[in-house]
């Protein structure tokens, strides 16, 4: 069995604010070490459960956070940006399941460091279905017929996953108190939990179906600032709804919608606030 792992950072145990996930801040090196240990616990459990291949995609920020020298020697790691498919780079029909580790809730929702790609996104939709990073990534997996078997992160990420993907296995490594405060398990206990949940997810795989995306989906992004919408709408094929911060794009499939989302959010980040 081949397993694909997308590993984000905000949903890792003990990481509660930007100082843990921003490479320029003092807590980052601690954060990336804990992130690596947490990912490695899942990788080891997957191989111990009989998986033949585990491909890991570093999915946070510049996507070069995981310490490859600490990973299981049989794992493979996709590291660095710029990636055409960002958090799901390398995912295709050769995998029998996907794991989303270190994930968080979508923008405008309760959850530790909740957001959707950039902090300038208020809401994101596929055909009027609200999605965050998790939902969009699950749709890409579904396009290739790959079910999301395991989601690990805070309690709000787990709730989002359970609403989105029937019978998915979730691992809650911290409970939300506020957007920058959590009650966390220690790394040792989180790793124990993740190993157990990985085994459960693989045993339960026949009960989880891929999240199939709609044909010819419309991507709609509501930005926080009008200037962000102006920048995003510079991408050919987009429509900026008059008098709003919403930009729409009609895609031929979910893969085109995903790449459009990456481009639109990257453009939106060029907005300044002075």
From TrEMBL:
Binding site for Zn(2+) 2: 8, 60, 104, 133
Residues in the signal sequence: none
Enzyme active site: 115
One Pfam family hit: Peptidase_M55
Record-listed Zn(2+) 1 binding positions: 8, 10
InterPro entries: DppA_N, Peptidase_M55, Peptidase_M55_sf
Keywords: Aminopeptidase, Hydrolase, Metal-binding, Protease, Zinc
GO molecular function: aminopeptidase activity; metal ion binding
Descriptive protein name: Aminopeptidase
Organism of provenance: Rossellomorea aquimaris
Lineage: Bacteria, Bacillati, Bacillota, Bacilli, Bacillales
């Amino acid at each position: 069995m081949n397993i694909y792992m997308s590993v984000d950072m905000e949903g890792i145990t003990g990481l509660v604010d930007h100082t843990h996930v921003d490479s320029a801040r003092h807590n980052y090196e601690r954060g990336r070490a804990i992130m690596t240990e947490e990912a490695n616990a899942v990788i080891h459990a997957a191989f111990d459960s009989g998986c033949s291949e585990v491909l890991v995609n570093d999915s946070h920020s510049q996507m070069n956070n995981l310490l490859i020298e600490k990973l299981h020697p049989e794992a493979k790691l996709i590291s660095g940006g710029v990636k055409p498919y960002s958090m799901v780079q390398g995912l295709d029909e050769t995998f029998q399941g996907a794991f989303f580790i270190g994930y968080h809730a979508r923008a405008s929702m309760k959850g530790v460091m909740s957001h959707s790609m950039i902090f300038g996104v208020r809401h994101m939709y596929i055909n009027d279905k609200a999605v965050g990073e998790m939902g969009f990534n699950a749709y890409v997996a579904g396009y290739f017929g790959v079910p999301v078997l395991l989601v690990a992160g805070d309690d709000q990420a787990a709730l989002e996953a359970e609403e989105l993907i029937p019978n998915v296995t979730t691992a809650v490594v911290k409970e939300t108190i506020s957007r920058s405060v959590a009650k966390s398990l220690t790394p040792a206990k989180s790793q124990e939990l993740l190993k157990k949940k990985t085994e459960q997810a693989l045993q339960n795989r026949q009960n989880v179906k891929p999240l199939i995306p709609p044909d010819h989906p419309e991507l709609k992004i509501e930005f926080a600032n009008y200037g962000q919408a102006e920048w995003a709408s510079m991408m050919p094929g987009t429509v900026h709804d008059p008098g709003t911060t919403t930009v729409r794009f009609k895609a031929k499939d979910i893969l085109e919608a995903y790449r459009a989302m990456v481009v639109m959010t990257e453009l939106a980040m060029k907005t300044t606030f002075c």
